[in-house]
Amino acid sequence: MGDLDLLTQDELEALTEAAREVALCARVLAKTGDNVISEVLRGAGPFYEWRHYPPSDVYDSEYHAQFYYHAHPPEERVEGEHGHFHTFLRPLGMPEGIRPVALPDLEPDEDGNDALAHLVGISMDRSGRPIRLFTTNRWVTGETWYRAEDVIRMLDGFVVDHARPSWPLNRWITALVRFYRPRITTLLMQRDAAVARWQTDHPDSYVYDDRGLEVPSETAVDLDSDMAAVEAAMRRMRRGLRQAGGRR
User: Fold this and answer.
1) 204 vs 195, 198, 207, 210, 232, CA distance in Å?
2) Mind spelling out the 3-state secondary structure of the chain?
3) What's the rounded Cα separation, in Å, for the pair 52 and 71?
4) The domain containing residue 124 runs over which residues?
5) Does the global pTM surpass 0.85?
6) What average pLDDT does range 150-167 have in this prediction?
7) Where's the DUF6969 domain (predicted)?
8) What distance, in Å, lies between the first and last C-alpha atoms of the chain?
């Protein structure tokens, strides 16, 4: 989780609240033997590689956040992965002033809401727990490319606030992106650095369409350990605030 002691009180409290929400959603699902994977696949029939679940993705028309779940063939998955979520934000949900990078092949956004940005991928194990966060090159999801700094500004706008296909699933993925905001921020900065290096090392390639670069940055995650780290940092901050108050 990085150096949590460098976060402000507001930032740390936001992570703590997000952790509680993630844990709550997992707990209520577990009471009926479910998890977020069983929720996104509910009623879908056989699970096919590459297919989007649900078929039309999950899209919040108020916040313009979007996600879907899918899986690659077993030989293309990281160890322990069942499948992964891809998360996005569409232009109508983005902060003011954000524009795509002016790449040579940038296509006009005719309806004003098609130039979506990929935020982060979330690899899941079979039990419904996240095991990895990763970014993607442009060709992977067909996204429109935005600078890492702008995608970081989009993270707080990823909100899925409706009941379909699953209220606890939507709340869980919203809270998970918020909980891992510091890690995602680092991954996005690493993404842009990796893309720049690749273009320098492969001058004859157009990096954004180069199949040799699929995942510019990734990191393993351990949700229990990461939540415990946030709780410990929150305790240290509260203890420090009490001590500072006692010295006045």
Assistant:
1) 14, 11, 9, 10, 49
2) CCCHHHCCHHHHHHHHHHHHHHHHHHHHHHCCCCCHHHHHCCCCCCCCCCCCEEEEEEECCCCCEEEEEECCCHHHCCCCCCEEEEEEECHHHCCCCCCCCCCCCCCCCCCCCCCCEEEEEEEECCCCCEEEEECCCHHHHCCCCCCHHHHHHHHHHCCCCCCCCCHHHHHHHHHHHHHCHHHHHHHHHHHHHHHHHHHHHCCCCCHHHCCCCCCCCEEECCHHHHHHHHHHHHHHHHHHHHHHHHCC
3) 9
4) 4-103+110-246
5) yes
6) 97
7) 17-221
8) 32
Copy the structure tokens of residue 236: 């240290």
What tokens appear for 231 in the block? Answer: 């709780």
Question: What is the total count of domains within the chain?
Answer: 1
Give the pLDDT confidence of 206-219 residue by residue, as tens digits.
999 999 999 999 99
Task: Report the pLDDT value the prediction gives residue 230, as an integer from 0 to 100.
Answer: 96
